[in-house]
């Protein structure tokens, strides 16, 4: 499955990036995630409500307030990225 997104918010890039610094920050952004477990070596298990299998992820590259890339392992294998771009008084958030 490949999910793409392209959203704009009135928050500045620094505020948006705060939600993406580590997978342990994701529950603050998405109510579908439960309490995150640190698995060591940068890996985090992120439980998803209504799913018996957690999303296991680690950040592979990051540029504060600009870009974050992830790697996933386990049942949910693959990669993802989020790019932040200042537009007017807010931030455009694109990625997959």
List the main descriptive attributes of the protein structure presented here.
single chain, 7 strands, 96 residues, mainly beta
Describe the structure.
The protein has 96 residues and is mainly β. It contains two helices and seven strands; from the N terminus they run βααββββββ. The protein has helices at 13-17, 26-29, and strands at residues 5-9, 37-40, 43-46, 55-63, 67-73, 78-87, 90-95. Strands 1-7-6-5-4-3-2 form a seven-stranded antiparallel beta sheet. The protein is globular and about 40 Å long. The protein starts with a strand and ends with a strand. The model has no long low-confidence stretch (mean pLDDT 91).
- The structure class reads mainly beta
Provide the spatial order of strands within the biggest beta sheet.
1-7-6-5-4-3-2
Shape: globular
- Name the beta content range: over 45%
Radius of gyration from the alpha-carbon trace, in angstroms: 13 Å
For the sheet with most strands, the description reads: 7 strands, antiparallel
Q: Which parts are unreliable, with pLDDT below 50 for 5 consecutive residues or more? A: none
Mean of all residue-level pLDDT scores: 91
Number of strands: 7
Order of helices and strands: EHHEEEEEE
Number of helices: 2
| C-alpha end-to-end distance | 10 Å
User: Helix proportion of residues, in percent?
Assistant: under 10%
């Amino acid at each position: 499955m490949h999910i793409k997104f392209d959203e704009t918010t009135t928050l500045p890039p620094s505020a948006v990036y705060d939600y993406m610094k580590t997978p342990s920050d994701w529950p603050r952004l998405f109510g579908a995630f439960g309490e995150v477990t640190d698995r060591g070596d940068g890996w985090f298990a992120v439980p998803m409500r209504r799913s018996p299998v957690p999303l296991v992820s680690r950040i592979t590259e990051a540029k504060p307030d600009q870009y974050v890339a992830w790697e996933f392992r386990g049942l949910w294998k693959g990669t993802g990225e989020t790019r932040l771009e200042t537009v007017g008084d807010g931030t455009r958030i694109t990625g997959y």
